[in-house]
Amino acid sequence: MKFTHTQNKFSRLSSLKFIGLGLLLITIAGISSCKKSYLDIIPDNVATLDNAFANRNEAEKYLFTCYSYLPQEGHPDKNPGFNGGDELWIYWPFQTDYFFLDPYNIARGLQNKANPYLNYWDSFDGRSLWQGIRTCNIFLENVEKVPDLQPYEKARWIAEAKFLKAYFHWYLFRMYGPIPIQDKNLDITASPEQVKVSRQPVDSVVNYITRLIDDAAAGDDNTGLPSRITSAATELGRITKVAALSIKARVLVTAASPLFNGNTELGGMKNKNGQALFNTQYDAAKWTRAVDACKAAIDLAEANGVILYHFNPGVINVDDATKTQMNIRNAVCEKWNSELIWGSTASANPTFWLQLFACPQLDQNNINLDLKGQMAPTLKMAELFYTKNGVPIEEDKTWDYANRFKLRPTPSGDPNLQADYQTVGLHVDREPRFYADIAFDGAKFFMKNGNFNIQSKAEQYSGKKQSRLYSITGYYTKKLVNWNLVATSTNVTVESYPWPIIRLTDLYLLYAEALNESGRSAEALPYLNQIRDRAGLKSIESSWSTYSKNPGKYTSVSGLREIIQQERGIELAFEASRFYDLRRWKTAPQVMSTPIYGWDINQTSFEDFNKRVLLFSPKFTGPRDYFWPIKEYDLQINPNLVQNPGW
Fold first, then answer.
1. In angstroms, rounded to a whole number, what is the distance separating the alpha carbons of residues 140 and 138?
2. Which of 60, 328, 591, 622 is most buried, by CB atoms within 10 Å?
3. What letter does residue 624 receive in the DSSP assignment?
4. According to DSSP H, which parts of 226-310 are helical?
5. Domain boundaries, the chain
């Protein structure tokens, strides 16, 4: 769907603080003629559950109510993975142009237990995931009452509700660690003691989630979930077997990771009755289980036509460098592309605001304040990407690491940089994913309607000109902007795309990680190399052997682990993955406690602009910051719940 937004209407919106869902929906309803996604349908006012399941149409509405509790994972202020970590930064104090301040406060170390930010346990953005689970249970308890529902359709709907129940448990587990299991709703006559549930051990929660997913994914296409969506007009965004098995793979890789597998740091976390919630003994079998789950998901995905995306420019002539960049960008931004396994349609325009928040001013002749350009990659992310030789910048023996912050002229004929310009060495001779994902002063920004030059020193059209709507680091998140976006001085047309909850590249990386941790490192390399080939890089074996100061790094489990983690950080940069990856690897206390730097965006000259500026010194404290706190009030209501360590 393309969403056209006029300047005069947007100017009213940009002056508001969006602090509640009601205000947001009322405001957007007034400026948009788009309908809500069919998965957001809420049942009509029904007096009883009997009415809700009186016929197929009412029951289908109730199923879509189960879907409506899915978090809006493609929204910059509703998914902590975007602005709650160290990938992106924002100017501060942040007084306008936001919906919720929650992720920005988390990034600045302000999470608290009195009124937790992004509190999906109780309610955030109108969503309590426990209520979502309860709604799924109600559906499963009542769907047999529907008189005009065909058996094959009933089987599919039951499978969808089971998967959604599993997914809501998974989402809470990833945020809060060991959680209660709500397999059935408590009866209205339940005693006060029955209502006071306890948290379940990590292994029990994981086994419950994966068992539910297995139930949902069982059978063939005629007895449960379809393997692929065939009715694109009415069903895109609904669950498939491929999506279910892929999420199961993600759950099991997470469960096998250091945060949950043999974590002695959390050995003291116990229920009030003394039951341990973390198994402190490392279990290699968890990685074997993850390997099997990843392989099953990959096999089913590939059997159903899911392949790595490659850009087709159509009638537009583009050079090879641009094609490679678009292989990377459009693997995320092209709607329902060949790589997408499950895309979020949790609102009618799931990535509309994400793109406006990410995109800078592209055209000096068409300035439009709808393009905020405020989602600013940090300098540490710019340093994460490889050199053009496919190895880390500090390892490449042919790349000038020591002088990476020194100013230099842009090389003649470089397709990624503006001619006759100046930039720092850090921006020269980098891999295609760097130029595909990040824009900066002196970079080019390819769109369907032109190849734009980014000039972002102070007072330039892409740079800071006022107290809002600018990048605090001097970098812009090019990767998240669909190439069909068109801006004039009076309106912006945005082609929203489903947010990729999981895509094939992610699944390949999970599989490679699980193989390596299982001692099968050589089997991991082909999957990593497919990703690198699509990104215009040579194989790991060739790149490390030829260019790295540590040529044998990939031959050991620990060395390949480091490579896989960096590959994952690069390939999934700005896709809300790093936030949780650093936690499950238990590297967050080191990585996320390093300073946040940017360029001196208040300067007008090349020399002054291209100087590092310290923006913030974060502190990730383990084990406290691995998980969200449970709200203090909830612990008072239910004394059987124990708080997460450190809170």
1. 5
2. 328
3. G
4. 232-235, 241-256, 285-303
5. 347-501
SS3 178: coil
Residue with tokens 């699980």: 514
Length of the chain: 647
17's CB contacts (< 8 A; 6+ apart) are 95, 96, 98
Side-chain-side CA neighbours of 162 within 13 Å: the count stands at 23
Q: Residue 544 half-sphere exposure, CB side, CA atoms within 13 Å?
A: 17
The two three-digit tokens of residue 329, written as one number: 């960008």
Element (H, E) at 525: helix 521-534
d(CA 368, CA 276): 56
Other Cβ atoms less than 10 A from the Cβ of 152: the count is 12
Query: Considering only CA atoms, which of 377, 364, 441 is closest in space to residue 608?
Result: 441
Q: What is the pLDDT of residues 284-314, one digit of tens each?
A: 999 999 999 999 999 999 999 999 999 999 8
Distance of CA 324 to the CA centre of its chain: 22
Question: How far apart are the C-alpha atoms of 91 and 598, rounded to whole Å?
Answer: 11
- pTM attached to this predicted model: 0.93
Cα–Cα distance for residue pair 419/453, rounded to 1 Å: 10
Q: Cβ(365)–Cβ(455) under 8 Å? A: no
State the amino acid at position 65 in one-letter form: T
CB atoms within 10 A of CB 235: 14
Give the span between the Cα atoms of 23 and 109, in whole angstroms. Answer: 28
Contact 217, 244 (CB under 8 A): yes
Following CA atoms 44, 45, 49, 50 in sequence, which dihedral angle do they give, to the nearest 10 degrees? -80
* Angstrom distance (rounded) from CA 58 to CA 287: 43
Give the CA diameter of the chain: 77
The amino acid at 200: Q
